[in-house]
Design goal:
Elements: H1 2-25, H2 28-33, H3 45-67, H4 74-95, H5 99-120
Length: 126
């Protein structure tokens, strides 16, 4: 189970690192033109940049604390934080009637929930 949690956390970390970096680097106008990017028009540029930074911190939190065995409790906490972000993302995309993107967000949410539940357990890193 530990190996499966590491693999899932690693893949999610890569996804959130890339998504967060895109939100930080790419201007809001260009993000809005991307497929499924219309949601950015509902939010300020500052919010989008903040969201990108939080996603990067969450990605780091999924891997680094456990990898270096420094405060590994931060891993499930990072997963819970990213789950909150994905819950919001699923709500936003479903309100915009973007069902494919809502389902993708729910898939990420399910994977993050697996990591959170697995890492909160008594044998979380064994």
């Amino acid at each position: 189970m530990n190996l499966a949690l590491w693999i899932i956390a690693g893949l999610l970390a890569a996804v959130f690192l890339l998504a967060g970096a895109n939100k930080l680097i790419i201007p809001k106008e260009k993000l809005a033109k991307a497929p499924g990017g219309g949601w950015v028009n509902d939010f300020s540029a500052g919010f989008i940049k903040t969201l990108g930074a939080v996603e990067i911190l969450g990605a780091i939190g999924l891997i680094v604390p456990a990898a270096f065995d420094v405060a590994p409790i931060l891993v499930p906490l990072a997963a819970v934080g990213l789950a909150a972000i994905m819950t919001g993302a699923a709500i936003v995309t479903s309100r915009r009637h973007e069902s494919k993107h809502a389902m993708l967000n729910l898939t990420y949410l399910a994977l993050i929930a697996i990591v959170a539940i697995g890492r909160f357990g008594p044998e979380s890193f064994s």
